[in-house]
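Entry, Tuesday afternoon. Goal for today is a structural model of the target with adenosine-5'-triphosphate bound, before we commit to ordering more compound. Inputs were pasted exactly as handed over by J.K., no edits. I checked the ligand SMILES twice against the vendor sheet because last time a stereocentre got dropped in transcription.
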Amino acid sequence: MSLNYAFGFSLFLLLLVALNIYFFYTLNTIGKKATHYLVPNIKLDLAPSIFKEIYTYLNYLPSQYKTKNSKFIEKQKNLISLFNSSAVINLKDVWHETENWISDESLFPHTNGVPGQILHAIQNTQIALVDNAPKGTQLKLLLLLEGKQKLYFKPKRYKLDDVIRGSIYAGFDRHNSEVFAYYLAMVLDLKWIAPSVIRKINIHNDVVPKATLGLKKTMVKNGRGSLCIYGKCFYCKRNETVCPDKNGEIEGAAILYLDKQFKVYRSPWRRSYTSKKMEWEKDDDYCKKVSGSLSLRRILNLIDVAIFDFLIQNGDRHRYEVYKDQIVLLDNGKGLGNPMVDELDILAPLYQCCIISSSTWHNLEMVSGGSLSDTIKILSGYQGNKLATEEHFKAVDRRLMKIYATVQYCISKHGTAKVFKNL
Ligand SMILES: Nc1ncnc2c1ncn2[C@@H]1O[C@H](COP(=O)(O)OP(=O)(O)OP(=O)(O)O)[C@@H](O)[C@H]1O
Ligand SMILES: [Mn+2]
């Protein structure tokens, strides 16, 4: 009898607990449709508690951030018209227009068809001279074109599906990351970037006959008799060459060289590149310190750059160049390393300052629901470039949702009026 009673009572208790859990769950999800993301627990335990909060907002992201924004249709048409030009173009005219462009709004013309024409000119203008570009740590070449324009050429080091593991700044530069970054900037209306496109140069026709003596000295024959380049740069090594493919071609990112005077600054959120933690990694109030020495405009600009870098996972922006009081997005080669990794601390300027320019937010809201990756694919298609694997494209849309979640976290903490800034 007493055993039966105990059994009945435990059943009752069990039912009570189950009901509790059920009501707790429904009350918490009323009005919010939850999508559960796999939150990597072990890693999060070691990460700042802010990450846990951001992931909570990610799980309850309003549905508008997961579907396409109908307002983007018109904007996408405009973007397409920049790159989809069927006009027969004269390379000289394009270079003339590009070089004489003066504006406080952009580095280059963004009128109908012109960005696509600039890329076409970068891909097709004859090469007059090829030299080493010794500035920086990574192997790159300087191409002088027939009309005297200069290009930086960052050669392909990896296949598109190679995954770079290890630290966020591991490995060589990724040539496709440079070009991907350019289209990403165009979609997000970030106009302070150098046009960049995939170009193939022929070792026998484009390089050897046009190579400077200095470049020739950094070329060696490999086991198969191909002429390879090891270049001149801080990390360049004789046994880490770039070799032509079976057609004698070297693929790379051809980036328009900007012959301008930049001011160079060290990024306040730079990494230590050692196991030592930087101040921003230890102090959640770090933004206050930065605000003491930088203008609001510059901080908002650094936050735009952090968002941009987070989307491609470039964790190597140790310094930044400024032209006309705007950060120029130079050196975007350390993105697209591992499509499975979203290193949230690249967003530190955003979650530590909890402010964002209203126009940036507007541009981000436009490209929800896969529009961001779709549009990069469409625009780069006009130059015949395949820039990344499907995993990388998906990763960019996934990271965009994490940016939305971070802004939601900021709004809940400080309120809309404090988060969005108009300049
Ligand atoms: N398109 C460009 N036009 C003009 N100058 C450029 C351009 N891209 C880069 N630079 C300049 O050349 C320097 C080296 O280029 P970049 O940063 O791309 O090379 P890197 O080898 O990746 O260098 P690091 O290892 O220091 O990051 C930059 O700091 C910048 O000042
Ligand atoms: Mn670099």
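Residues 72-256 form one domain.
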